[in-house]
Design a protein that fits this description.
The complex is a heterodimer of chains A (about 700) and B (about 80). Chain A is α/β, with parallel strands linked by helices. Chain A contains 31 helices and twelve strands. Helix content of chain B is about 10%, strand content about 40%. Classes of the chains: A alpha/beta (about 700), B mainly beta (about 80). Chains A and B meet through helix 3, helix 10, helix 11, helix 15 and strand 12 of A and helix 1 and strand 4 of B.
Chain lengths: ~700, ~80
């Protein structure tokens, strides 16, 4: 008895489905994508009693099987396709104790697909506080299934879920609602046309707007066009179906669910009155943002300096200690500084994900959506755009994926287009290193001046995003009525386990993805910097000897500078110098900018590689940048050039992965191309203006 | 003239009477926005839009334009 069984975890958003998943699988989980689309696919393994292994699939949260988004469609598609290798032997519907009625709607739909379906009622720890009591035994009889009361927070009841899963074969697959009662005539004719099919499955296929199972549907359309009626006819039937389901659910709940309103404490109401208040709501939101950015700056400098110094030492060590067949120069000057340029992010990225996951887990994010909707609509956005814009401070890629729950296509497209303006964590190291170079480490009214400048750049990113949205809003035609439905979940204390797992998962994938690009670019840069065409590069020692004596203390330095200038990299840099000179950059920064078009985070690593090539002694990147001068002794990094560089990075579209995701989500190259050119043009002009203004 | 959800004041409780199915997103109907169900207006965002509702236990927010499509009967306080 060692058959693996497939389990699908399904549930409404905000029911703690992921917590249940985390408890069932622990660290035995992996995240990927569904083939062809960028919906996140979470899978894990759970060991059941008697040696049975269950493959648990955590499906995207959905309110019903009438999918209205790509994420929701994944659920429907899987449940209707018996041939799918992930097709569940048993479905586990996770609901929460307070919204049981609404959650049961999804349960009855899944049960009616003839899949063995277990009901998990999560958050049972809140029952007493909310004055709720449930007769689970009675409920099991009425729903013809097994019910498990679970508290993911207190890790209670998970074993019961495992037992029910293991005994899935004993579950009844009787449907809850007889679908043909909705419209006898319509379903009778449907039955006559497809005598051997489940009526409810047919009905779902017909009402599925999204491109589910194209082949099957085509076949059906050809056979009988009469069943595909007008959209409004179908919608009317869907409403009838919903009413039928609620009638069934109300009947069940009347028998086994009691809520004593006397005992219920109204924490939600009291918190909502403050957090969604017309004035205080905004004040609190702003204070939270301010705190996050201050913390990001204050808490990350120590680990960052430590990482910076460690890599410098490590590189130094590698140069002398490694055997020559390992190419110590490539490792010490290319790979190690390149790696340092990515590892240095880890503290801030982890911290950003920490804050964002706390905002999401507590339920606060929905309140922000609520208070911001009216304001955001002026810019052609939705209140729901706030979530992508804020999570864009971590990374634009998940942020753009988070736009999927915006119902209106125009609002969604505008959000996708402007999200890359928000200050993502890849810009952070660029800002941090430049700020520490050009802004004095002073405090104003108790706040760090450097932290304030950082915050100004975050605000600049948001402001630019809003401005761009406004322009797009005014120029694009309004295409459809905008639907906007936001669930306001109950307030919760975030689960440590969920937060930690999110941080580990997101940071890991970010570092691995970005790390690959950075490694490749670092090696490429090192090769380009260490080789050059023709004799000028090879004859460097002779050329230098003409002006500087071999015994001069600075001979080595002069030689290396000369070599770099005449390397392939130097030639490329010199080539673009006229273009970037008006912005206040030298050709070395030019190279860093060019390589940053692959990914912004390459910037620091690139400068590290360029500056370190041929250096006799390793120094920290920051010291090396501060010491960098033009041939006449003027420092390269001044207030004007530093700010100009930061403005350039604030606006430019320098991220291949973002362009790829925009292409996927908009299904066209047109929008990423527009982003690339328009944003970069804005960046160039903005940087030009900044440099010229501060140079006076 | 019939009363709609958009005419309620914060704290009001009403019963949903009727609406045009095409005017509402399916999701709202599935969340329990159905004729006969009780609805309470909990909060209004700035400029009274969106509306924060409690529809027979489901807490959700919708925009004023959607709320104006839902006819209600106010319950006496």
């Amino acid at each position: 008895m060692s058959k693996n069984i497939n389990v699908a975890l399904i549930g409404n958003p905000n029911t703690g489905k992921s917590s249940v998943f985390n408890h069932l699988t622990g660290l035995n989980q992996k995240t990927g994508n569904y083939p062809g689309i960028t919906v996140e696919k979470r899978q894990g393994v759970c060991r059941l009693p008697r040696g049975v292994k269950a493959r648990i699939l955590d499906l995207p949260g959905t309110y019903s099987l009438n999918a209205s988004s790509l994420d929701e469609n994944v659920v429907v598609e899987l449940l209707l396709n018996k041939k799918d290798k992930d097709f569940p032997d048993v479905a586990v519907v996770v609901s929460d104790v307070e919204n049981l009625k609404r959650n049961l709607l999804l349960f009855t739909q899944i049960k009616d697909l003839n899949i063995p379906t277990i009901l998990v009622i999560n958050m049972s720890d809140r029952m007493r506080r909310k004055g709720i009591s449930i007769d689970t035994h009675n409920m099991e009889q009425l729903l013809h299934t097994k019910v498990a009361l679970v508290s993911a927070r207190k890790n209670e009841g998970i074993d019961v879920v495992k037992q029910h899963i293991a005994a899935y074969k004993t579950l009844s697959t009787a449907p809850c609602v007889a679908i043909d009662q909705i419209d006898t005539e319509y379903f009778e004719s449907l039955r006559n046309t497809f005598p051997n099919q489940s009526l409810y499955k047919l009905w779902l296929v017909i009402t599925q707007d999204v491109n589910f199972a194209k082949v099957e549907r085509k076949k059906m359309e050809a056979q009988d066009a009469g069943h595909i009626r007008t959209a409004s006819f179908l919608k009317r039937l869907q409403q009838k179906e919903t009413i039928k389901r609620y009638q069934f659910i109300n009947g069940v709940l009347k028998e086994c669910y009691v809520k004593d309103f006397q005992k219920a404490t109204d924490l939600r109401g009291r918190l909502d009155r403050v957090l969604t208040h017309k004035v205080w709501g905004f004040v609190i939101f702003f204070v939270i943002l301010l705190t996050i950015f201050q913390a990001l700056y204050d808490w990350s400098s120590v680990p960052m300096d430590f990482i910076d110094a460690t890599f410098a030492h490590f590189s130094d060590w590698a140069k002398t200690a490694l055997p020559s067949w390992l190419a110590p120069n490539l490792i010490a000057e290319g790979i190690i500084p390149g790696l340092g340029g990515i590892v240095i992010f880890v503290p801030q990225i982890a911290m950003l994900f920490l804050f964002i996951s706390i905002l999401e887990e507590t339920g606060y994010m929905s309140r922000v959506v609520f208070i911001m909707d009216r304001v955001m609509r002026r810019f052609g956005l939705s209140g729901k755009s706030v979530v992508p814009l804020i999570s864009g401070t971590a990374c634009a890629i998940p942020a753009i994926m988070a736009t999927r729950n915006i119902e209106n296509w125009k609002e969604r497209l505008v959000t996708i287009l402007v999200t890359p303006f928000t200050t993502c964590s890849a810009r952070l190291p660029v800002y941090l290193i430049l700020i520490s170079l050009i802004i004095p480490d002073e405090r104003i009214l108790g706040a760090s001046l450097q932290g304030l400048v950082l915050m100004i750049f975050y605000l600049l990113g948001f402001a630019m995003a809003l401005l761009a949205a406004l322009v797009l809003h005014k120029t694009m035609p309004q295409n459809q009525k905008s639907y906007f439905v936001v669930e306001m979940p109950n307030y919760r204390i975030p689960l440590l386990k969920n937060v930690v797992l999110t941080i580990i998962e997101k940071t890991k994938s970010f570092v691995l993805e970005a790390g690959k690009v950075i490694m490749a670019i670092s090696i490429l840069l090192w090769v380009l910097a260490s080789n050059g065409p023709s004799e000028t590069f090879k004859n460097a020692p002779e050329e230098i000897a003409k002006t500087v004596s071999v015994h001069d203390a600075h001979y080595e330095q002069h030689l290396n500078a000369y070599k770099l200038e005449h390397s392939y990299l130097g030639i490329i840099g010199k080539g673009i110098e006229p273009l970037i000179r008006p912005l206040g950059y030298d050709w070395k920064i030019g190279i860093a900018i060019v390589s940053s078009f692959a990914a912004r985070e390459v910037f620091v690593g690139t400068l590290a590689t360029i500056y370190n090539v041929g250096e006799a002694e390793e120094e920290t990147i920051k010291k090396r940048m501060a010491a960098e001068t033009y041939s006449d002794g003027r420092p390269v990094f001044t207030l004007a050039s530093g700010l100009s560089l930061m403005v350039f990075y604030a606006f430019a579209m320098q991220c291949m992965s973002t362009l790829a995701i925009v292409r996927k989500e908009t299904n066209s190259w047109r929008w990423p191309a527009i982003q690339l050119f328009v944003m970069t043009a804005i960046a160039y002009l903005g940087a030009l203006a900044t440099f010229q203004y501060f140079s006076i | 003239m019939s009363l709609t959800l958009a005419d309620l004041a914060v704290g009001d409780v009403a019963v949903i009477e009727s609406f045009e199915v095409e005017q509402l997103p399916m999701k709202l109907i599935e969340m329990g926005c159905l004729p006969g169900n009780e609805v309470g207006l909990l909060q209004l965002a700035p400029q009274s839009d969106p509306l924060y509702l409690n529809i027979s236990g489901a807490h959700l927010a919708i925009r004023r334009e959607t709320a104006a499509c839902i006819n209600v009967r106010k319950l006496n306080e």
